[in-house]
Amino acid sequence: MVDATVNAQSGPRGPKPKRVISSTNIIIYGTLFVVCLYYLLPLYVMIVTSLKGMPEIRLGNIFGPPVEVTFEPWVKAWSEACTGINCEGLSRGFWNSVWILVPSVIISIAIASVNGYALANWRFKGSEVFFTILIFGAFIPYQVMIYPIVIILRESGEGITWFLRLFNEDASAFRLMGSLSGLVIVHTIFGMPILTLLFRNYFTSVPEELFKAARVDGAGFWGIYFRIMLPMSLPIFVVAMILQVTGIWNDFLFGVIYTKPETYPMTVQLNNIVNSVQGVKEYNVNMAATLLTGLVPLVIYFASGKLFVRGIAAGAVKG
Amino acid sequence: MAVTDTGQTGAGAKKPSPLFKNLTAKIAAIPMIMTALVVFIGCTLWTIYHSFTKSRLLPAPEKWVGLENYERLWSENRWIVSIENLAIYGACSLILSLTIGFILAALLDRKIRFENTIRTIILYPFALSFVVTGLVWQWILNPQLGLQNVVRSWGWETFTFDPINNADIVIYGILIAGIWQGSGFVMVLLLAGMRGIDEDVWKASRVEGIPAWKTYIFIVIPMMRPVFVTALVIISAGIIKVYDLVVAQTSGGPGIASEVPAKYVIEKMFTSQNLGLGFAASTMMLLSVLVVLIPWAYLEFGGKKNG
Amino acid sequence: MKLTTKLLAATAMVAASSASAVELEVTHWWTSGGEAAAVSEFAKAFNATEHTWVDGAIAGSGGTARPIIISRILGGDPMHATQLNHGRQAEELVEAGLMLDLTDVAEAEGWADVVNPSRLLDSCTLDGKVYCVPVNIHSPQWLWLSHAAYEKAGVDVPADWFEFVDSADALKEAGVVPLAMGQQSWQTNLAFGAIMVAVGGTDLYLDVLTNKNAEAAASPEMTKVFEAFAAARLLSEGSNVQDWNQATNLVITGQAGGQIHGDWAQGEFQVAEQVAGTDYTCLPGLGVNEIIATGGDAFYFPKSDDPEITAAQKELASLMISREVQVAFNLKKGSLPIRGDVDLSAANDCMKKGLAILAAGNVLPDGVNAFSADTQGQIDDLTVEFWNDTSITVEDAQARYVDIIEDAD
Amino acid sequence: MTYSVEIKQLDLAFGAVKVLQGLDLNINEGEFLVLLGSSGCGKSTLLNCIAGLLEITDGQIYIKGENVTWAEPSERGIGMVFQSYALYPQMTVKGNLSFGLKNAKVPKDEIEKRVARAAEILQIGPLLDRKPGALSGGQRQRVAIGRALVRDVDVFLFDEPLSNLDAKLRVDLRVELKRLHNQLENTMIYVTHDQIEAMTLADRIAIMKGGQIMQLASPDEIYNRPRNLYVADFIGSPSMNFIEGHLEGGSFKVDDMVLPMDGYDFAAPQTADRPATIGIRPEHVVTGELVPNAPLQFTVDVDLVEPMGSDTLVYAKLGQHPFRIRMDGQAKVTVGETIAIGVDPSRASLFDKATEDRL
Q1: Domain boundary at D177, D203, D233, which?
Q2: Residue B61 placed within a domain
Q3: CA A136, A139, A144, A150: dihedral to nearest 10 degrees?
Q4: Strands D78-81 and D155-159: what pairing?
Q5: Residues D228 and D251 in one domain
Q6: Residue among A210, A215, A228 whose CB faces D73 most closely
Q7: Mean pLDDT for chain B?
Q8: Which of D47, D63, D80, D91 to mutate to test the interface with A (most CBs of A within 10 A)?
Q9: Which of B298, C291, D69, D280 has the fewest beta carbons under 10 Å from its own?
Q10: Cis (ω within 30 of 0) for the bond into A193?
Q11: Is residue C364 part of a domain?
Q12: Which residues from chain A sit within 8 angstroms of residue D144, using beta carbons?
């Protein structure tokens, strides 16, 4: 699939419209213009709503530009909006998301790239079977696995505690369930199929002779990985990073189930802020909060351009 | 042959045990093996087993009740509604996103200007979370202040479009949001497939004077079959998992009009404290995924072996 | 009296001497304005000790919060104290040995004597041991009416449910939504319960809820309840809000005539600085029968292996049930205190009405305590579907209700 | 005698597919051995087995008298050059050359010395600080050879090293390789499908087919005395003319012609009569004024003429049998013409029709 998307950059294939102004051209550009409006509309609405005051919103036109621009809603969404008696706004969720994101991205990519490398270059008996299971796993609805994972996290947490107390009787209980490390594990697990596929395909496309040459040169499993494969694979690591950053940032389900309120990621907190209301709904604050949450993936999207396209095409199976 | 005798003492003379062959690779693959076996297989089997038990708040493997949970599941109106919603949402979003995606891809493939800009615009919603998507559309479709209100203020006083509160059309409101988010992605996939087609096909059809639309329908689409199948599988897998979008946009309301199976499972497991029923429902979800997946896997992998 | 005070002091001293300052994380789903104000009374009182209250508010209704709370307890990461509806829902957690046994505190402080009605403590008790602290009494069967709305419509504020139904047309003409209703399913279920008591009478209510009598559920009296419920659903057109407090807000602002909701709605009126009797009217038992169901919130304390935390948990438990905190909390919350021996002269008219009924002993069990979460969820689904889909007939709905009651546990 | 590389009863199977079967091969010290065959014959596979990049199913491999059957590639004392050069793209030329030495923990000054020497031999000194991406194909292949060179090994393995180069460069590098071999006197095992490379470079050629060695001999032997029909057909361009007939009493009979095989060096002194195939190389046919001196003379009808500059290839018919003749570039032949040709039986080859072995 990655290869297919590389083709997407290879230039249009369709017939070229002949003249600049022709009825065909007017239809094509007209349609595309309308389509672009449809896709841009929500972004536009988010922005203008977040810049209006509540009285203006109640009066008026959802599509109208703000008469009086105010940044109050942004400030409120970021640092004042309440869920319960915590009125710290989205900022807490933002930092939680960052703390979830950074280790999850690093660990999941590290593990998956080694997996992919082992599958591509160091096949062993059964490796393809595990890989097939892994890929099928990408399609299993999370709902099927959510509950048993709660148990696994609890038991491993207790196991680790038991282990720690072998050395230090006063060691405090180690918890995976509800903690950031638990969520990091969950993200690593569920990111694994697609990332492994991504890396496996990439490493398979690296000429086998390069790998052979390195072996003749006396490099082993890790030597080849770190010295040969890793330096060659920066683009695919960037693609994987984009994939994971957007995926993990946008996660809601795991965030709800495997964390607790203090560690809620931004998406969950956003939903709480918008859907838990004190008195009147403040649409402008809601939209500012929504935009703030969408900002990280949007920035990554606009900054990464074609790499993002490759990433999502590769990550498609993640669903 | 004195060589042979001394040779036997060489370091490479002994065949290593097959267990230690590639040992580092095997150790490095432990996370993958654990995930595959413990999580994907183990957890799935665990859930399936417990769907036949009377587990309530806690798993109760000893209380075997056979198909009772499944009987209850299919007698529950909310589950039926969830399935119906999923069917409507699924069918519409498959057809619409493939159609829209294909048309857009075809338009973008006609050597137009600003191709990159337009593609960027169409694809950006895909970068957003379902929660964000759901909340934005909840606001746009707000009957008092959103789209309906604006159209009415333009003079069309009787205009009614309220897919947030009207139970009959609420699922279409979610569909609009879902299409908005996902169709750009389908477009990118199909565009990639389209670009994979040999340019000579176009030259040939032009030489023979076949109109462009006919070329698309009779030549290009059949040639893009593998891409369509991939897109189909991906969209389907995504549809079955749809959860956050509904939670954010409608919370399943009004009433139970926009409930979906994924949400049903979560709520039965955690809110209603009926794990067995939740497991039964999630097993049904798994089954529906397999219905899509197995024929695809057969075509994709089984076919290759024969060909 | 004196004895209890002494005991309380004694427990507190024991706790204080054995425990250094710890942080207790407390989860709850009280996030609306009135609720949040009330819960901060707990926090304030607890912070006044050497311990610290770490607030773990979970937005949304109990439906959102309960799964989070339970999955954390089961997942080996329990909070130190948590709100839960007592009764059936927590039973399994207690049976699994996950909850702290509070019997020693309860016996030392004589909870059995002070908690009124005693059913509340019974709900917390399993095999003779106390596992939770009831903190307030919910009475769901109230009708809240907006004076502003009736002024607009030019009719008198009704005195009971039947008058309210009659007045609906006038309200509609004045552009007022007669009945505000939040979209979440537990709210329709709550309204259903209220109408059941008002229209069907207490005998029917008890027969169905306590005895799980399917015949009673199929009786013609029950049909009347469903008919009344069917009539009520027509009155809520146009109230497109999700949360109960948004619905209450419609009543406060006069956009809706009334709302069937629990006494905790009181807190919202209070936050909006409205005065009972002049700005709004509250009718317990929907004004039909002076009776209220007493469900309520309770706090559970998941077991911890840290003795310091256990001590602090017990301290918090005794604090929550203490007289001063009960008064402060319930005044803000708009709910009734769980002990009969407190002075609530500061209470407003509505609370006093409730207190009077309570004192008279006209109390019923609440569905939340009578049914398992599973059954409760099924009734939630049925009522919310019926409410929103007018094509479902009374007969269908009742038939499904009978099925649910038959299988109820 | 000590062999440089000794392969005994080598078996290699991928599942049920047997790629190499019972293969024996001894390579002498300092020998340039070419493994030649069409694609899929197992020549690269064999090379990979020698290198230790493929795990064999059965048999033994010795290098310099040491059993290396299960040794790591880097422990075998080999250097390898690949078709696609396989240079590490992120390292400079110097990095590429020294990577293996660093892995082997060779001291720094020693590395410097060896790299400098290799650079001098291959004349890539000025390229040392460049990345492979900035090099031409020929330069890349030199670096790849250099990478094997610095390892200071006894055996060099080449896996079609010239196939990715254009025709002219290929010839240049071929010559250089030969010179290098003369200079270094290492054992070299060289895989190719190109018979010109094989003929020009090899001390001995091993022609492989279906995982087995068909003939292992010097280029001259292979060309003039192919051991079987396959080798005869494979070597030489345009390929040998084959005519099926009978061997009877020392003469080859086809149709109504009888060709006395006087001067033919039979493998066995008394060769019984049998169905046989005669093979005559197109370039061993004489025409024009040389015909009268030839032991055997025929006339053929010209079907098609392909002038190729230095030579002219004539497609003709000898009776009903198609017959190719390689003539001088100056020869004037027209289609339809009947011309006289001469053949020397001592330069022909005879094969048993059933076994296809040389008679």
Answers
A1: D233
A2: no
A3: 80
A4: parallel
A5: no
A6: A215
A7: 84
A8: D80
A9: B298
A10: no
A11: no
A12: 213
Shared-domain flag, residues D263 and D348: yes
For position D304, what pLDDT does the model report? Answer: 92
Q: Is residue A187 very low, low, confident or very high in pLDDT (cuts 50, 70, 90)? A: very high
Whether D129 is in a domain gets the answer yes
Residues of B in contact with C407 (CB under 8 A): 72
Helix pair C394-407, C220-233: axis angle to 10 deg: 120
Chain A environment of C59 (Cβ under 8 Å): 83-84, 272-273, 275-276
Total domains, chain C: 2
Q: What is the 3-state secondary structure (H, E, C) of chain A?
A: CHHHHHHHCCCCCCCCCCCCCCHHHHHHHHHHHHHHHHHHHHHHHHHHHHCCCHHHHHHCCCCCCCCCCCCHHHHHHHHCCCECCECCCCHHHHHHHHHHHHHHHHHHHHHHHHHHHHHHHCCCCCHHHHHHHHHHHCCCCHHHHHHHHHHHHHHHHHHHHHHHHHHCCCCCCCCCCECHHHHHHHHHHHHHHHHHHHHHHHHHHCCHHHHHHHHHCCCCHHHHHHHHHHHHCHHHHHHHHHHHHHHHHHCCHHHHHHECHHHCCHHHHHHHHHHCCCCCCCHHHHHHHHHHHHHHHHHHHHHHCHHHHHHHHHHHHHC
C-alpha pair distances (Å), A179 with each of A109, A110, A153, D29: 20, 21, 10, 66
Question: Is B62 inside any structural domain?
Answer: no
Better-predicted residue by pLDDT, A181 or B303: A181
Average pLDDT (A124-132) is: 87
Tens digit of each residue's pLDDT (9 = 90 or more) over B131-159? 999 999 998 988 878 888 888 888 888 88
The residue extents of the domains of chain A are 2-16+89-269+289-318
Q: Find out whether C243 and C32 touch, Cβ atoms under 8 Å.
A: yes
In a domain, D80, yes or no: yes
Is position D227 within any domain? yes
Q: Tell me: domain A2-16+89-269+289-318, CATH 1.10.3720.10, correct?
A: yes
Question: D357 lies in a domain?
Answer: no
Residue whose C-alpha is closest to residue D206's, from D93, D50, D13, D86 = D50
**Element (H or E) spanning C157, and its range?**
none
Give the CATH number for residue D64. Answer: 3.40.50.300
Are D271 and D142 found together in one domain? no
Residue environment code for D126-136, b if the CB has 16+ CB neighbours within 10 A, otherwise e: ebbeebbeebe
- Cis-peptide into D292, omega within 30 deg: no
What's the rounded Cα separation, in Å, for the pair C72 and A260? 8
Which of D233, D262, D282 delimits the end of a domain? D233
Q: Where are the beta strands (DSSP E) in C12-150?
A: 23-28, 52-57, 81-85, 125-126, 129-130, 132-134, 142-146
D198 and D221 together in one domain? yes
Interface test with C, best of B82, B273, B274 (most C CBs within 10 A): B273
**Structure tokens belonging to residue C232:** 């009520």
Domain containing residue C280: 142-293+371-407
Q: How many CB pairs under 8 A join A and D?
A: 65
**Can you tell me the ipTM of this complex?**
0.82
Residues of B in contact with C183 (CB under 8 A): 251, 253-255
- A2-16, C92-106, D227-241: range with lowest mean pLDDT: A2-16
- Look up the domain containing B295 and give its range: 73-306
C249 and C308 assigned to the same domain: no
Helix ranges, chain B (H): 2-7, 23-28, 30-34, 44-50, 68-75, 77-108, 115-123, 130-140, 147-153, 170-195, 199-207, 212-214, 221-223, 225-240, 244-249, 261-266, 275-297, 303-306
CATH code for position B225: 1.10.3720.10
Residue B79 resides in a domain: yes
The total number of structural domains that make up chain D: 2
